[in-house]
């Protein structure tokens, strides 16, 4: 089978398609034949980081994360053999392959009528978007800001904020195409975050302040976002695509603001029942069409370099998927 890895850190060209044997599922695992693999921007940061002291650094050879949708071919020990033949989705840290080992505990059943590429948004992107809104305690009528709103997670968060009752949804994006998408997805105000005064534009759209902000950029963008919060406003930070894991000035929280960090694994450990309920809710929203999963690019598994160039150039609206 085909398996994508990299043996040196660097640009997209370090990615290589290799031949590998089909792995056997161990205890608690299933082997899934992939229909699609959803790509994640974080792998761009992991692939190019050369400093061993950085949190983005990974030992070599490196593998690529992804959200795999496919059919269970074999089950390991302590796993229900009845899962064989079932269509599922799950996250893997070694996902770019024809056949992938997945943790059986967090498999998401995928309805037959749901497009595989859209289903790839369930296990991670959708779960993070909905989890951020949950821990951020979004309330009816509140103003919500989503930075990097046209990304894999952001475009879902914009829609979910509205579905959760937000009164005003503001989103930021860096290109006209992405801003047009956000307007089409229902954002009330769409701001160009490449503009020097983007935060002033947000203030004009939300003169009383933002009640909840979801940020995946970090760095200066996060600092500006904190200053946009209303009294008792909350910022939920779930990424740092700018590469800057900045500290938060204490003065930012003295103004009755709070900052919450979100990661999916701790959320699952702390609130497993809620996390599973989130997956059920997301599946139904996608199946019914109430939530729209935007698939911006489909790339063959044989072209991992092109896939990562698209991610690195931020040229994709919504999600990029690989097709074996």
UniProtKB/TrEMBL annotation:
SUPFAM superfamilies listed in its UniProt record: GroES-like (SSF50129), NAD(P)-binding Rossmann-fold domains (SSF51735)
Gene3D superfamilies: Medium-chain alcohol dehydrogenases, catalytic domain, NAD(P)-binding Rossmann-like Domain
Chain ranges of the Enoyl reductase (ER) domain: 10-322
Source domain of life: Bacteria
InterPro entries cross-referenced by the UniProt entry: ADH-like_C, ADH-like_N, ER, GroES-like_sf, NAD(P)-bd_dom_sf
Keywords: NADP, Oxidoreductase
Record-given protein name: Zinc-binding alcohol dehydrogenase family protein
Taxonomic classification: Bacteria, Bacillati, Actinomycetota, Actinomycetes, Streptosporangiales
């Amino acid at each position: 089978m085909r398996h994508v890895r990299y043996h040196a850190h660097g640009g997209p060209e370090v990615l290589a398609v290799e031949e590998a044997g089909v792995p056997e599922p161990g205890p608690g695992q299933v082997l899934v034949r992939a229909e699609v693999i959803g790509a994640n921007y974080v792998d761009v940061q992991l692939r190019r980081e050369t400093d061993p002291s950085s949190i983005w650094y990974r030992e070599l050879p490196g593998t690529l994360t992804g959200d795999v949708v496919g059919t269970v071919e074999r089950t390991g020990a302590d796993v229900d053999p009845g899962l064989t033949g079932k269509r599922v989705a799950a996250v893997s840290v070694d996902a770019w392959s024809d056949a992938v080992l997945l943790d059986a505990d967090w498999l998401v059943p995928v309805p037959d009528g749901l497009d595989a590429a859209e289903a790839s948004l369930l296990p991670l992107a959708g779960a993070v978007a909905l989890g951020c809104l949950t821990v951020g305690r979004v309330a009816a009528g509140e103003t919500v800001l989503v930075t990097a709103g046209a990304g894999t997670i952001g475009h879902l968060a914009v829609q979910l904020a509205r579905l959760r009752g937000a009164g005003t949804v503001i989103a930021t994006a860096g290109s006209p195409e992405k801003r047009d998408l956000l307007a089409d997805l229902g954002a009330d105000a769409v701001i160009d975050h490449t503009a020097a005064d983007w935060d002033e534009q947000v203030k004009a759209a939300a003169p009383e302040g933002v009640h909840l902000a979801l940020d995946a950029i970090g760095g200066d963008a996060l600092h500006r976002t904190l200053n946009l919060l209303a009294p008792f406003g909350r910022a939920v930070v779930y990424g740092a695509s700018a590469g800057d894991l900045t500290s938060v000035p204490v003065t930012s929280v003295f103004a009755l603001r709070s900052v919450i960090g979100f990661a999916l694994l701790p959320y699952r450990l702390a609130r497993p029942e809620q996390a599973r309920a989130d997956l059920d809710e997301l599946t139904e929203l996608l199946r019914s069409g109430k939530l729209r999963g935007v698939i911006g690019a489909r790339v063959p598994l044989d072209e991992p370099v092109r896939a990562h160039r698209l991610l690195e150039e931020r040229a994709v609206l919504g999600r990029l998927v690989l097709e074996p």
